[in-house]
Amino acid sequence: MSLIMPKPDEKTLSKSDSIISSLRKISKNVLSEEEEKAVYETDGLSIHRQRPIAVVLPETTEEVSKVLKYCYENNVKVVPRGAGTGLSGAALPLKDSILVVLGKFNKILEVDFENRCVVSQPGVTNLAITGAVQHEGFYYAPDPSSQLACSIGGNISTNAGGVHSLKYGVTTNNLLGVEMVLIDGTIIRLGGKNLDSEGYDLLGIVTGSEGLLGVVTEITVKILKKPQAVRAVLIGFDTNDDAGNCVADIISAGIIPAGMEIMDKPLIIATDNFAKAGYPRNVEILLIVELDGTESEVNALISKVLEIANKNKASYNRASESDEERLRFWKGRKAAFTALGVISPDYICMDGSIPRKKLGTVLNEIARLSKKYGLDVANCFHAGDGNLHPLIMFDSNNAKELKKAESFGADILKYCVKVGGVLTGEHGVGIEKRELMCEMFNNDDIQQQLSLKKAFDEKSLLNPGKVFPILHRCAEEGRVHVHKGKTRFADLPRF
Amino acid sequence: MSDIFCPNNQEEISQFVYDCYESSRPIEIVTLNSKPIGRSIQCSQTLDLRKNSGIIEYLPDELYIKVKAGTPVIDILEILKSKKQTLGFEPVDLGYLYTGKPNYGSIGGVVSCNLSGPRRFKSGALRDHLLGFTAVNGKGECIKSGGTVVKNVTGYDLSKLLAGSYGTLSVLTELTLKVIPEPEFAETFVLYGLNPQEALEVFSKAMKTSLEISGACYYPKNNINFLRLNDLNNSKSITALRIEGPKNSVQERIQALNKIFELKKEKTILEIYQSNLFWKIAANLECFSNSQNLVAKISVPPSEATNFVNQFCEDDFLGISNKYFVEWAGGLVFVEIDNHDPSYLILEKMRKFCKEKNSHLTVIKANNTFRRSGFFITSSDENIKILASKVKHSFDPKSILNPGKIYAGI
User: Fold this and answer.
1) pLDDT by residue (tens digit) across A195-222?
2) In terms of CA atoms, which chain A residue is nearest residue B125?
3) Which 3-state string (H, E, C) describes chain A?
């Protein structure tokens, strides 16, 4: 699959050997053999592959700082990478870049129950944070489905969400502080164990910046006490609209469930086959609602939710009677991506966010597009926060199908924006949705973001070719703000 | 006197800022009853945003409200109340602190200060509730970021940066805020007569339970006279824990607290009406009503709160007695410092404490002398200052928007 990336700098490529030997003086973990680099040539968006000049696995913040400083001084591009599970290609190496992998930053540095936080290195997995505190009944709230493998540092770069973000927020709402290295090697600390910093909220923009602003080397996250009681309920419907209305009605009733997920028939069957979750197989669409709080509160909420479900013509319901059963309900949902792999050779996963009340409409549109493109699609949604993950199935051996799948995906995202949503809820823009940014932003919006990028990385060495469009000029002449007959800021780069 | 311009809409704001950018004229941004917060600034132009007001869209089912930035906060709270919803960050009414009277001012002003109420440690800061915005940057360009949905990672999260930027990066014109269902019920569990250390131990214990405390504050004995609630004894220090949710759940959890702290003899429970009043008083800093002194907030790791209080607020042995109160389960201390020492030596010491203990101090009220020459935030890290300066430049290259309001020279 051809992907247009910034043109590799021949000068940099020609001095690859000298770059590698300089890096070896800084770090003992520099990989430059083709077979060694092959491991890192792609991330979770595996349709695109590229090997960098070298892969560096630093072990200390000082090492990261020296590596970046060297790159800054020698104009070498840098792509940071966590566990490589990202789905938008943000960690795809560039041919003329080095890849900085944080895999050796794999220690939890401090568990601090007094301040309800954990200080960790970025390469630690998301689930390991909970693992370090669960003996005291605490947990780390954001739980992307890849939590067993994805790194906490990577979570910060994409502002990862998960199935419980409706009530407990996404990464940005649970992150207290970071230590990070800027491209010139400067080490800074933002936030810490206290709740609010002073001055500009730099931590807020670093979160979700997809490795474009710096390399995070230490992380402080908030931990929460597990709720007293948690129960989940499965609710089946015959139509998309009924399920969509039920979700909206639950929220209107003032209930904020801990999680609220939707899967359509293809995924119900696939995940149930894969995880033996105990899902009903005769419903068209399945809603999983999780409620937490005190025991009596949870029971009361479940009755309320079921009442709302029945009003919306639910055809099936089952509330978990044990924690085992509840976890089984989730096991199916969390295995959605893996389960689909069994029934389709390839798929691409989209990640738009839409207003909740548009759930039914968008599902219907996806069904229409599926027919138009002749490709099957399975849907899972974080329904509570309107974040959808249509999984478009195709066969990568058929070049035409991949192209079709990508166009299908782009059409879905454009439709999300059209109904008042956004391109990406939690996976990030990366290379995948880069060219669609103009669907949401005009030239001034994008130029402002690019200016901010320059505040952190004047030479644009950190992860170039990601997030911002490089093919289009979003700004059609008619959309540029023209004052007194002159195009403003004519000297600014227009990508 | 500076020229005051009072535009009606975003287009007029954009044109005005653009003209000022072209002619390099600095602008002070004010809205409805703006308070003199931050460093004082000298500008030839004043941009008054009060006419850029009104609710654009309120969708209770979608849990958001979109408003023009000059909209009075009180109007927003009222319309939300009609649908049993509210702003989760409990906006702080600085009117009490500044004039002794309620006066929220505009939502744009509140967002620009990023001050969050008692629920902060549970529900996040104001910045966590700002879903998206449109604004005019320092070049007069209309920019936007975010949207109306809670999950959104499309491009940089500029909402976080603009919240709390005191109007120094852009002029906010439209804001989309997340709303939450009003808690169905609430009660407050109060313990009397604890010293600060005991109170902080209570917070620590309560926060390690799954009782979902949504407010935890401490008023020492020298700062309780102003509290006048029927069921509250205001002769001894007050340690308060709030619980919100469905009625039966609240009552169960209050009982659980009662059990955990059964050895503490002096306690009471504030029922919903008084509980709501109590936390409103706390959120609005009414204990510093119309203070003529300097008031600062210090965000600390909760484990350092006792240490801070002992050093700077209350120590009988050392004769330290500054009016203060502790919020956010020990995560925030508000302290009043009298103006007798014009060099504010104590502030310098606090600054040192903050540097050592990973804390941050922000002055939230000061007299004009201090506002002209003093520091507004601790910011001791030169690298952060350089970065902040570059960030400012990326939005406002000629530094015409509220120049110097947060950082001197930026």
Assistant:
1) 998 899 999 999 999 999 999 999 999 9
2) A196
3) CCCCCCCCCHHHHHCHHHHHHHHHHHCCCEECCHHHHHCCCCCCCCCCCCCCCEEECCCCHHHHHHHHHHHHHCCCEEEEECCCCCCCCCCCCCCCEEEEECCCCCCEEEEECCCCEEEECCCCEHHHHHHHHHHHCEECCCCCCCCCCCEHHHHHHHCCCCCCHHHHCCHHHHEEEEEEECCCCCEEEEECCCCCCCCCCHHHHHCCCCCCCCEEEEEEEECEECCCEEEEEEEEECCHHHHHHHHHHHHHCCCCCCEEEEEEHHHHHHHHHHHCCCCCCCCCEEEEEEEEECHHHHHHHHHHHHHHHHHCCCCEEEECCCHHHHHHHHHHHHCHHHHHHHHCCEEEECCCECCHHHHHHHHHHHHHHHHHHCCCEEEEEEHHHCEEEEEEEECCCCHHHHHHHHHHHHHHHHHHHHCCCECCCCCCCCCCCHHHHHHHCCHHHHHHHHHHHHHHCCCCCECCCCCCCCCCCCCCHHHCCEECCEECCCCCCCC
